[in-house]
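Structure ticket #2291
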Amino acid sequence: MSERFVLRLTANVLAVALTLANGGADAEGARKVINAMAVTVFPPFEFADASGNLVGFDIDVLDGIASKMGAQVNWTQSSFAQIISFAPLKTKRADILSSALGDTPERRASVNFIDYVYQPYVFYTVRASADQFPNMDVLCGKRVGAIRTSVIETGAVVKWSEENCTKAGKPAIIVVPGENTPQVRLMVKQGFADAGLTGAAIIAYQNKLEEDQYAVIGKPVIKLLTGMAYSKDDHKFGEELKQALGALIADGTYSQLLHKWGLPDDASIEKPMINGQP
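Resolution: structure written out below.
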């Protein structure tokens, strides 16, 4: 057997081996299951129904995205505190975290976001007390509930208070911390807080469930770009999510889901973004 023939045979064997290896990697790299975590007390975005199943706008959106990717979502229930720690991503227990998270520069230092919706945040009170709040200025000096662990909510209340109360020589808003959205609403209903801050879609959804018990005070305080968090190292996954969400928007499914869960028109995004960038 000539030396030239041996070299050619060796080269061919190596080429076949590389082809098989690449093919195996491609097959292995095709994500069939997306491990996701969500909270259970944030309707209409995500919550547990009477049977304990996770439902809501976020759940439907990510399930739709996964379907476009040829994958399925394995949902796990979690707490808001656990999710905003981003620990499940670092320990690989989750591929993506869904809790209608505000996409902020501070959080981008730890994770990437696939942005999928806007959240206008509003002050609200019980309808029986609505006449005590003819305008937003009346909030100065009042007790306003916000989620304790949410820098978005507490920060928005403090900032609005500084700009509209303190600078005008009026007493600052007193922030009353709650553990989650339902607890804040309960504090408002029971009189431990005069008002609360939450997403416009959330309070609209609760009004459907609770026979219009809540009244919005004034205009939205902030319009928050909202995303689902995934690992900063997983760029390929991020692009796959972005393309699949784009397809969900293009075929009209996204719009249908907005209407299904009663989200306002200004909650819609025109196209998916990663960290606020198209």
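Closing remark: The two ends are 60 Å apart (CA to CA).
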